[in-house]
Amino acid sequence: MRTEHSRLPGTSGRKPCVAAENGCAPSGRLPRRTDLSASTQMKEIRRQLGRRGFSMSKTNSGHWRFEHPGMDGPVFAPDTPSDRRGIRNLHAMLRRKMRSSIL
Fold this sequence. Notes:
By secondary structure, the protein is α+β, with helices and mostly antiparallel strands. It is 35% helix and 13% strand.
């Protein structure tokens, strides 16, 4: 018996990733939960980054400043991203900064 998954426009109808459903993440990545609001996702990201040794502070303009001893300079992110790309952009910026400090 075949289980049908709801298809979103523009998707191929593939079965969702089981690792994402279990809250797992591929090596080194932070899990992305799409069932939460953007501000709740940012809270979860801040918790996870804190566990990984990042220090964070809120700026006067309401953004977050993330720093890590192994990272080349700070990364800034909004407190409540306005679109789905905001969190993905934060992941990309952190990945680039961490990679550039290794080289």
